[in-house]
Specification:
0% strand
């Protein structure tokens, strides 16, 4: 659907050709978690609440390394825009090696530290036991997911968003089948859900890596580990890592506050977070287009094209958020029975989803501008402002524990603080930056 007033043309078609396939690929991970939530929710409130904690830990562990996708997209797009396809693919291969090493390390640390990580949330023994079980059986899939991030970043930088879409679609289907078989048919409970997701993630990683390797061979790019290139990829990604750490801290803080509101609000928060993430990544498809188009335009030295693409994509982001708002408001009453038989969970979920819905246009604005600045390589600014945003959000979130009632009302206040306050702070800093010119740096980088 085209935003009202937008004229169809090459620019809009290029945005859509990147954003639509990227949407399908981006939503694969939240679809995994939503499928897990629906399947595990049938086991009871405690397993679903445990999945909420484990999901927050896993999302943090994986998304700490999102620079493998975002940084690679920007650097590959710049080199490709400058006409250096072999160099672009060489950077992509370096990213795959870096992802493999980081994935193995992160998997080992998360598995060993599972009880301590879950204990940080202060949940009861029954909920914590479910969370630890899910975590320990999920970590084998982490290397696969990091490889997917790096390979997908390379393909996006080359303007190939269709391959990640095909892999993600197949992965989502396989994940549902494996989860149903392992959780219910095999009777493995929440551990079976984690096993199915891990197997799917490993398969996706192998498939996307093979696509990048074939392209690198075709262009004569080196496939062996290049320590200098791997080190350069890691160094370039440090600002985005700091940015992600600050953002994940904000999300973990939100889950911590939800834990203090009781088991039913925590279970409802888990589902609301999954739905919000699904919608966020749908909007983030436009941010992926922004990364690619901005990187290519600046790599080619075409500043007017970069600014024009930014204006167009911001408009698309706001209208896309409005569509998400209307859709979520229309179906929110139908979601409760899909995820929990508990009336308290359903009541809290329906209320929190209203807040998640009405903040979608703001989210569309934020995600697109975030993508533009990532594509421009403006990681230091994003890192610094993300840290400030966390400092601003911290007392607001903690105030919910101190001042808001427990139960549904407390969860609503938490989502007002998160989806309203935190996102508005991000919008302020991103909007201020984009109006200036300090983010505009031309050349292959």
């Amino acid at each position: 659907m085209r935003p009202p007033g937008a004229r169809p043309g090459p620019a809009e078609r290029e945005i859509l050709s990147l954003a639509v396939p990227a949407f399908g690929a981006l939503v694969s991970e939240p679809l995994f978690l939503l499928a897990d939530s629906a399947i595990v929710g049938a086991l009871g409130t405690e397993p679903l609440a445990g999945l909420g904690i484990a999901g927050a830990v896993l999302a943090t562990a994986v998304n700490l390394f999102v620079f493998l996708a975002y940084g690679t997209t920007a650097s590959v797009a710049r080199r490709s825009g400058a006409g250096d396809l072999r160099g672009a693919l060489a950077q992509g291969v370096d990213g795959l090696w870096l992802a493999t090493g980081l994935g193995i390390l992160a998997s080992a640390l998360t598995g060993l530290g599972a009880p301590a990580l879950v204990g940080l949330f202060g949940a009861g023994p029954a909920v914590s036991a479910q969370a630890v079980a899910y975590l320990r059986w999920s970590v084998p899939g982490m290397p696969g997911m990091l490889i997917v991030l790096a390979a997908t970043g390379t393909l996006r930088g080359l303007r190939d968003t269709r391959t990640p879409l095909v892999v993600a679609s197949a992965g989502a289907l396989v994940n549902v089948v494996l989860n149903l078989l392992l959780v219910h048919a095999a009777g493995l409970g929440i551990a079976g859900s984690a096993m199915g997701t891990s197997l799917t993630q490993l398969g996706m990683g192998a498939t996307t890596a093979a696509v990048v390797v074939r392209a690198a061979r075709r262009e004569g790019a080196p496939l062996r580990p290049d320590l200098a290139g791997i080190r350069a990829s890691g160094t370039a990604g440090m600002p985005l890592l700091v940015r992600t750490l600050a953002m994940r801290a904000s999300l973990l803080l939100t889950t911590y506050v939800a834990t203090r509101l009781g088991p039913a609000p925590l279970a409802a928060h888990q589902v609301t977070s999954s739905v919000w993430t699904l919608l966020a990544l749908a909007l983030d498809a436009l941010a992926i287009a922004a990364q690619t188009l901005t990187g290519r335009a600046l790599g080619a030295g075409d500043v007017p094209r970069a600014r024009d693409a930014t204006r167009r994509m911001v408009r698309w982001g706001v209208y896309g958020g409005a569509v998400g708002m209307i859709g979520l408001l229309a179906v929110r009453g139908l979601l409760g029975p899909l995820f929990s038989p508990d009336p308290k969970v359903r009541e809290a979920l329906a209320a929190a989803l209203v807040v998640a819905a009405v903040t979608q246009p703001l989210a569309g604005y934020v995600f697109v501008l975030d993508g533009v600045l990532i594509g421009a390589g403006d990681g230091r600014y994003l890192a610094a402002t993300a840290t400030v945003q966390l400092v601003v959000y911290l007392p607001l979130a903690l105030a919910v524990i101190w001042a808001a009632p427990r139960g549904t009302a407390g969860l609503v206040w938490l989502w007002i603080t998160f989806a309203g306050g935190w996102m508005a702070t991000r919008a302020f800093f991103l909007g201020h930056r984009i109006r200036g010119s300090d983010w505009i740096v031309v050349g292959p980088g």
